[in-house]
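It is worth pausing here to work through a concrete case rather than discussing structure prediction in the abstract. The textbook approach is simple: state the sequence, then state the predicted structure, then interpret. We follow exactly that order.
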Amino acid sequence: MANVFHTLQERGYIDQVTHEEELIKLLEEESVTFYVGFDATADSLTLGHFIQIMVMMHMQKAGHRPIAVLGGGTTMVGDPSGRTDMRKMMTKEQIDYNAARFKEQLSRFIDFDNDKALIVNNADWLLDLNFLDFMREVGVHFSVNRMLTFDCYKNRLEEGLTFFEFSYMLMQSYDYLKLFRDYNCRLQVGGSDQWSNILSGTELIRKLEGEQAYVMTFNLLSTAAGTKMGKTEAGTIWLDPSKTSPYELYQYLRNSDDRDVKKFLALLTFLPMEEVNRLGNLKGAEINAAKEVLAYEVTKIIHGENEAKKAAQASRALFSNGSQTESIPHTELDRSLFKDGIGILDLLRKIGLTKSNGEGRRLIQQGGISIDGIKVEDTNKILTLKDFEDNKLLIRKGKKVYHQVRVK
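Step two, the predicted structure:
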């Protein structure tokens, strides 16, 4: 079996790594325990997190043991990396709920049976720390001058950086030390924005334990258009099907920029690289076949083969003006609502396509709303039962978001 490091490198995951030759040798000769952290800032993981999950799956398939660390403790502070202001503080109840949802979702991708992987929550060791004991053991090893040279803190100095946030690096470093001591965890992997945090953890292990630990970061994905992968005009692409349906996930990937297809196939699927290169090098209209493969494969991994097939069927029906739309996200409303009519702006809000009448009005004025293929031009349009065919109508927002309204 190929060394997993070379697999990850070939597929384009790796950004930076410490002691590369040593780590390659370690991964070749031993089953390495490694960890990935997930701060519980929402009640679902996102498509952005899926890169980390794919790395975990690749490494587990190669015989290494993942530890998923739920940030029940670190989320109480919030990572300042990439922020221009302090993160909104969350209640412990919110964080605990989010962490429980993460645990449920991660269990769909990682095999936790028989200690093949572990899920731990850093609240278990961070929330009861004694401040003075912690600062005497850990804080003395961190230079404030050096920390202020890291981008995650340097970029915040003009706007104001609190000591509260300044402690995040110490806590994440302590996580690594704790996992090293308890589970012989020798490697932490994470996004490239975590480089300084993880590096500080390895230095803490070296100073307190006299041992070598390793860092591997991977690229934060952005699209060719410059947007963060999984972020759209409509919002975030979630892994929870109740927040982003399998069909919406499929459509998001089916509408990928031609320039992103090869990269996404390599990072988000398990297709052999020979097939990734073949599909990614298709040109013109043929690239659409590669996009369908991308959308199907990712939806299958996240939501299962049956949901992927249904999403693909619904997508093809739309592209061919067909009528098989059962898998398209829908809202069922009582027909009495339409007896005297409902305004288009109110309907868009009711089914969740817009958050306000102002947003709906702008979309219509920009030509961004269609009903059954006909563009809506009047922001005061009233919809009644006469507008429904077979008790259904299909609303399109922009070029990619479809939503069906059904009456009962």
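Step three, interpretation. Residues 82-86 have pLDDT under 50 and may be disordered. The chain has three domains: 4-218, 231-319, 330-407.
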